[in-house]
UniProtKB/TrEMBL annotation:
GO terms for molecular function: oxidoreductase activity. Coiled coil: none annotated. This is 4Fe-4S binding protein. InterPro entries: 4Fe4S_Fe-S-bd, 4Fe4S_Fe_S_CS, CobQ/CobB/MinD/ParA_Nub-bd_dom, P-loop_NTPase. PANTHER family: 4FE-4S CLUSTER CONTAINING PARA FAMILY ATPASE PROTEIN, MIND SUPERFAMILY P-LOOP ATPASE CONTAINING AN INSERTED FERREDOXIN DOMAIN. Pfam families: CbiA, Fer4. Residues 60-90, 94-114 form the 4Fe-4S ferredoxin-type domain.
Length: 284
């Protein structure tokens, strides 16, 4: 099966709006995976009906057995995160390093799994979707992304679908790397600004490091034609194709207000996305 990740170097570039339209154009032939687990929002447009929930466990957290504890204070002195006070572990501060368990002379510390989020299998008007929610303040977002992608692959195999569309996190951090690893194509969404160009370079560098084929979409390109031209020159020098040039148009806002994909509304942006989708099919 083919996997396409839609990513961006920063938030707010229109990545989720674009993948919602790509989901609509796939016409039931793809599984959609929202891998922006820290701040998922694809569900706002696709309005999924949750069919299955799965618990997610991130890092292990320390717990002190009061019956075994002799209150020697060694664990408290050894904790570099200040997570132990009055011989109790403040769970939100615990980083799961296990030092307290290692230094405890009475074996009074246990490292336990703590639920850190949930993953869901859902049905949308465009097809099946896998998404997740990481609880506030929890760690291991990359591990949850890996879980979402595994569930998406299993679901695609079960339903005999050959395409997975991945909505990745913005930036270049751990969840982005987890979203990109092993995909067949990464569609990088950028904007015609100085910061857009800078963040695009960082993301292309990450993709190059992992040997991932990339293509670029310039959103709202007509707001700054000069900056858009520089991005095109940059992509040309790096051998990266421009998959699409989306104009600025109020139809995007109209679609967001109605919780619909842009291609459901129509207009010049929808037409540009449709052309881009055809080009992506060609690249794949």
């Amino acid at each position: 099966m083919l996997q396409v990740a839609i990513v961006s170097g920063k938030g707010g570039t229109g990545k989720t709006s674009i993948i919602a339209s790509l989901a609509a154009l796939a016409r039931g032939k793809a599984v959609f995976a929202d891998c922006d687990v820290d701040a998922p929002d694809l569900h706002l447009i696709l309005q999924p009906e949750i069919l299955e929930r799965r618990e997610f466990y991130g890092i292990k957290r320390a717990f002190i057995d009061k019956e075994k504890c002799i209150q020697c204070g060694i664990c408290q002195d050894s904790c570099r995160f200040g997570a132990i006070a009055d011989f109790e572990v403040e769970t939100p501060l615990c980083e799961g390093c296990g030092v307290c368990q290692l230094v405890c002379p009475e074996d009074a510390v246990d490292m336990r799994d703590v639920q850190a989020g949930e993953a869901y299998i859902s049905q949308t008007r465009f097809g099946p979707m896998v998404h997740a929610e990481l609880y506030p303040g929890e760690e291991a977002s990359g591990k949850l992304v890996a879980m979402v992608r595994e569930m998406a692959r299993d679901l695609a195999a079960e339903k005999n679908l050959d395409l997975i569309l991945i909505d990745g996190s913005p930036g270049i951090g751990c969840p982005v790397i987890a979203s990109l690893t092993g995909v067949d194509l990464a569609l990088v969404v950028t904007e015609p600004t100085v910061t857009g160009e800078h963040d695009l370079v960082r993301l292309l560098d990450v993709a190059d490091h992992f040997g991932i084929k990339t293509t670029v979409c310039i959103n709202k390109y007509d707001l700054n034609p000069e900056a858009a031209r520089k991005i095109e020159e940059l992509c040309g020098k790096r051998g990266v194709k421009i998959a699409g040039r989306l104009p600025y148009h109020t139809s995007v806002i109209e679609a967001m207000v109605k919780a619909q994909a842009v291609v459901e509304i129509g207009g010049p942006v929808a037409e540009a996305i449709e052309d881009m989708y055809k080009g992506l099919e060609g690249q794949l």
